[in-house]
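Hey, why these numbers?
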Amino acid sequence: MFWLMISILLLQRVSELFLANRNENTVKKLGAVEYGRKHYPFLVSMHGLFFLCFMLEVNLLERTLSGWWGILLPFICLVQLIRYWAIFSLGFYWNTKIFVIPDAELCSKGPYKWSRHPNYIVVALEFILLPLLYNAYVTAFMFTVLNACMMRIRIQEEEKALQLNRN
C-alpha cells in the first residue's frame, strides 16, 4: 500500500507541475509578472526531499502503517480534495510559482473564501499526516519545521507581490 500511495502522490505532483507550466504560459500572455524566483528552487527541492526522506525513513527504519490509519487516511483524502478545490477555484491562475497579473482581482471563491493560502495549509497538513500514516516521525517533524520556514518566506513574498499590484 505504501508504494501505491507514493506512486499516486508523485504522479499527482508531476501532473501539477505540467499544469503549472501550462498556466504559466497562459498568465504570461495576460501580462503576469513573476515574483519569488530566488526561493522557488528551494521550495521545489524541499518537496522532492520530503518524498525522498519519507521513503527512506519508512524503508530503512522499517516503519509500518500506523494503528491510527483509519483516522489518518480519511483526513489525507480530505486534504487532497481541498488541494483540488483550491486548484480548480483558481483555474488557469493556479501555479506553483508566484505570478501576479496587473489589476486582477483576488480570488474569493472556493476555499479562498476562508483562507488566502489554502494550498499552503494543505501542504502543511500533508507534511504531517502522510508521515504519521507510517509512523515516520522524523520526516513529519523535520519537514513541518522546514515548511514553516519556507512558508514564512513564501507568504511574505506573495503578499509583497500582491501589495505592489494594488499600488
About this structure: Strands lie at 33-35, 98-100. The two ends are 51 Å apart (CA to CA).
